[in-house]
Structures are given as structure tokens and as C-alpha cells.
Automatic annotation (TrEMBL):
Entries under PANTHER family matching the protein: PROTOPORPHYRINOGEN IX DEHYDROGENASE [MENAQUINONE], PROTOPORPHYRINOGEN IX DEHYDROGENASE [QUINONE]
One Pfam family cited in the UniProt record for this chain: Flavodoxin_5
Residue ranges of every copy of the Flavodoxin-like domain listed in the record: 3-138
MF terms in GO: FMN binding; menaquinone-dependent protoporphyrinogen oxidase activity; oxidoreductase activity, acting on NAD(P)H
Protein name as annotated: Flavodoxin domain-containing protein
GO annotation, biological process: heme biosynthetic process
SUPFAM superfamilies (UniProt xref): Flavoproteins
Lineage: Bacteria, Bacillati, Bacillota, Clostridia, Halanaerobiales
InterPro entries hit by this protein: Flavodoxin/NO_synth, Flavodoxin_dom, Flavoprotein-like_sf, Protoporphyrinogen_IX_DH
Amino acid sequence: MKTAVIYWSKTGFVKKYADWIAEELSADLILGKKAKLENLNEYDALILGGSLYAVGITGLDFIKKVIANLNNKKIAVFATGASSAREDIIAEVKNNNFSEAEQEYFEFFYLRGGFDFNKLSLKDKILMLMMKWKLKRKAVSELDEEEKGLLDAFETPVDFTDKNNIEDLIAYIKN
Ligand SMILES: Cc1cc2nc3c(=O)[nH]c(=O)nc-3n(C[C@H](O)[C@H](O)[C@H](O)COP(=O)(O)O)c2cc1C
């Protein structure tokens, strides 16, 4: 099965998963910003991955075009975020980004990434610092584990990527 992995990565976490998936499936690896819809016709399966930015997914506009125009192919979408892989978070991400009709055409996977403040663009640094100030205003007892983890991650980068996380996605494409 001819497969392509198309990805949008800002600081390298999505790229790490895209590399692992492409290697495992002997798939072509395509940078999201260089991907063109008309060049994807030759593939049987398409895997599209981006990261979570305030619940949105990077590359979402292109991913939606693929779902609308190339839905005769096997499609997997994965999202990478700093949050843990909790069922409710995953459902929220899926439902906030895709309509019920769109969800018919692809399988969704959440692959936990990490957080590296130093590698962010200036704009993203400012956005994250605003979030940090908001969290800092809360009493420690009001913070949940995710929020505490995020505050710690500003000081020391965290990397939760794990090659085992791609197993379900690989099985979906192969079967
Ligand atoms: C402005 C901003 C907003 C973010 N929002 C979320 C979020 O809503 N949920 C989450 O799990 N991670 C969030 N993150 C963390 C990134 O999704 C995470 O660091 C991801 O691993 C980045 O992957 P990439 O560097 O390959 O793009 C956010 C990061 C930034 C900079």
C-alpha cells in the first residue's frame, strides 16, 4: 500500500512521530507546508499529523481538504499535544475540529508529544507566557495535574514521545 505521511511540526515533536511512522510503513514523508492535494492521488493511504494549539490542530485547513476531496483513500489523522492521552481530552479535540460527517472518513489518534518553551517562535512564546501568568494567578490547590505539569515544563522541557504510541495507527493502516 503506497502511503504518505504529511505533517506540521513547530518544535519537533510531531516530526519525531512522523519519522517513526514513515519508517515503520516505508511511507513517503511530506512537509505539510509543501504538500499539494493534486500530488496525493498516487497514494492509497494518507496519514496527516499536526500539533495542538489551544485545541486547534496545525495543518487543519489542509487536513479538511484531504477529507473532503480524497476520502476514497484510507486516512489517519494524528494530533500531538503536551496533555496526557485522556479520553475526554481526545474526544474534545476531535469534536472541536471535525464535524460528525468529516469524522466518518478517517481514524483519529492522539500521540502525546511534549513542550519546549525555548524552541517556540516569539508569537507562541508570548501566547504561552500569557497562559503561564493566568495559571500563576490561581492558588496551587486550584491547579490540576495537567496545569502543574505545564508550569513545571516552562522551566525544564518535557518530552513524552514514545515509539510504542504509534502501534494502533500502524495497525489501522496495515489492516
Ligand atoms: C500557543 C500554544 C498552545 C498550545 N495549546 C495546547 C493545547 O491546547 N493542548 C495541548 O495538549 N498542548 C498544547 N500546546 C503544546 C503543543 O501542542 C506541544 O508542545 C506539541 O508537542 C508541539 O508539537 P510540535 O512542536 O511538533 O508542533 C500548545 C503550545 C503552544 C505554543
